[in-house]
UniProtKB/TrEMBL annotation:
Domain of life, per lineage: Bacteria
Protein name, per record: Thoeris protein ThsB TIR-like domain-containing protein
Thoeris protein ThsB TIR-like domain residues: 6-100
Length: 163
């Protein structure tokens, strides 16, 4: 079954890394937003941003949080996680710090953004799977994500169905 993914990520430092994952072609993803489009959405204020995110999430099967150095705790990423979960979508995280950016640089591993959420007394991070490719070279990290992301997505959807 073809899955449609919504990719959540910290734009400025991780957009290049995110585009690598989004362009793998393994799953269908949301259309990239240009800098100009995003600036126009932001000028509309919080209500406009929420409306845009909600529209982007509509019809998606899963929220894939691409975790960079500073992803955890960001307001709109938190909103995307919360909205995806409450809309009964699969949710998962993939650490992308070892993918190179446009300058050829890697980053450092960021915190798990799911640690900031609880279901009753259970941390969401104990339910939602987060994957950290076990490689340090960008090409190996890319291959690992490419080889596994479809299975990770199916597992996230299955896990969400249990809660």
């Amino acid at each position: 079954m073809a899955r449609n993914a919504f990719y959540s990520f910290h734009y400025v430092p991780d957009n290049w890394r995110a585009s690598q994952v989004r362009n793998m072609g393994v799953v269908e993803g949301n259309r990239p937003v240009s800098d100009n489009d995003w600036e126009a959405v932001k000028r509309g204020g919080e209500a406009a941003i929420k409306k845009w995110i909600d529209g982007q999430l509509y019809g998606r099967s899963v929220v894939v949080v691409l975790i960079g150095a500073n992803t955890a705790g960001r307001k709109w990423i938190n909103y995307e996680i919360e909205k995806g979960w409450s809309d009964r979508k699969g949710v998962l995280g993939i650490h992308v710090h070892n993918l190179k950016d446009s300058g050829g640089d890697q980053s450092y591993k960021g915190n798990n953004p799911f640690n900031d959420f609880t279901l009753g007394s259970t941390k969401l991070s104990s339910i939602v799977k987060t994957y950290d490719p076990p490689f340090t070279t960008s090409t190996s990290v890319y291959k690992h994500i490419n080889d596994n992301v479809a299975d990770w997505i199916e597992q996230a959807i299955e896990i969400r169905g249990q809660y």
